[in-house]
């Protein structure tokens, strides 16, 4: 005599099937790593790529921004990572590959440099800026690019700044760090494009719309600020560009910005 399922067992069966469908769908989704996640650009990159169907890995030194964001986004995970430390980068990527899979897109959004003139900064300020903006990029590329090369596709998107093109009187630490990053990104592009890996640089020219920047510039209109969500849309476009028309250097600035 056959025994039918009870309502509870049927509910459990449906729940199990839904979980398996979700797991199957997520395992087939590409992986995007956002290196350097804060409340502005980093969070917007994560949300935009998650909306596009990516499983997102959120990397930051601390978890105050990444942990809540990972809980918000389906399939996302947060990892502690110090980009100035090769061991920390290796551990983060080991965790990503174990938990989510091999990254197909890496967005390098980490950056750190003190603002000030040459007589206001220290050698340590300059060295930290270079380690964060350029050395960290090198270490991440060395860890992520081999798998992309083997697969014959992938994208490495680097978030740069106009300071990489000119040194201002008060950017004695920031400009050299971003210039080193820009040159390294170009070297990576020349080496990796022929293997099918798209390396691109977004030159950000303007003030990002954050609570902190609004507080410092309360007289500025909305149009003055760069919207993180719009920069994220540019990053997604670069990551999905057809190979016949790849871009390397793309600028992102408000329409009213003087340049």
Task: Please sum up the structure shown.
The protein is an alpha/beta fold and 259 residues long. It has helices spanning 7-27, 41-51, 66-72, 86-99, 123-151, 174-192, 211-216, 228-239, and strands at 31-35, 55-60, 77-80, 105-108, 154-161, 197-204, 207-208, 225-226, 249-252. It has a single domain (29-252), classed as NAD(P)-binding Rossmann-like Domain (Rossmann fold).
Structural summary, described in words:
This protein has 259 residues and is α/β, with parallel strands linked by helices. It has one domain: Rossmann fold (3-Layer(aba) Sandwich). Helix content is 46%, strand content 17%. The strands form two sheets. A seven-stranded parallel beta sheet has the order 3-2-1-4-5-6-9, with helices on both faces. The longest helix is centred in the middle third of the chain and has 29 residues, at 123-151. The N and C termini lie far apart (81 Å). Residues 15-26 have low confidence and may be disordered.
Q: How many domains?
A: 1
- Secondary structure tally, helices: 8
Averaged pLDDT, please?
90
CATH architecture: 3-Layer(aba) Sandwich
Q: How many beta-strand runs?
A: 9
Keyphrases for this structure?
259 residues; alpha/beta; Rossmann fold; two-stranded parallel ribbon; 9 strands
Write the layout of secondary structure elements.
Layout: H1 7-27, E1 31-35, H2 41-51, E2 55-60, H3 66-72, E3 77-80, H4 86-99, E4 105-108, H5 123-151, E5 154-161, H6 174-192, E6 197-204, E7 207-208, H7 211-216, E8 225-226, H8 228-239, E9 249-252
Parallel strand pairs: 1-2, 1-4, 2-3, 4-5, 5-6, 6-9, 7-8
Helix pairs in contact: 2-8, 4-5, 5-6
């Amino acid at each position: 005599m056959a025994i039918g399922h009870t309502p509870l067992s049927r509910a459990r069966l449906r729940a199990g099937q839904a979980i398996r469908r979700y797991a199957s769908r997520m395992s087939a989704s590409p992986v995007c790593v956002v290196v350097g996640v804060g409340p502005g650009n980093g969070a917007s990159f994560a949300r935009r790529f998650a909306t596009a169907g990516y499983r997102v890995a959120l990397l930051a030194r601390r978890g105050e921004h990444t942990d809540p964001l990972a809980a918000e986004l389906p399939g996302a995970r947060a990892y502690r990572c110090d980009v100035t430390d090769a061991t920390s980068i290796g551990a983060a990527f080991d965790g990503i590959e174990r938990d989510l899979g091999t990254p197909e897109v890496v967005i390098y959004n980490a950056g750190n440099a003190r603002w000030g003139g040459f007589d206001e900064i220290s050698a340590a300020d300059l060295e930290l800026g270079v380690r964060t903006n350029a050395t960290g990029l090198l270490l991440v590329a060395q860890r992520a690019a081999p798998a992309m090369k083997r697969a014959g596709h992938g994208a490495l998107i680097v978030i740069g700044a106009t300071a990489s093109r000119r040194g201002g009187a008060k950017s004695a630490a920031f400009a050299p760090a971003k210039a080193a990053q820009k040159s390294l990104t170009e070297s990576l592009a020349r080496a990796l494009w022929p293997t099918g890996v798209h390396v691109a640089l977004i030159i950000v020219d303007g003030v990002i719309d954050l609570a902190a920047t609004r507080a410092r510039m309360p007289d500025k209109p909305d149009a003055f600020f760069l919207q993180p969500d719009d920069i994220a849309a540019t990053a997604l476009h670069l990551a999905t560009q057809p190979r016949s028309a790849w871009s390397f250097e793309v600028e992102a600035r408000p329409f009213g910005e003087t340049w």
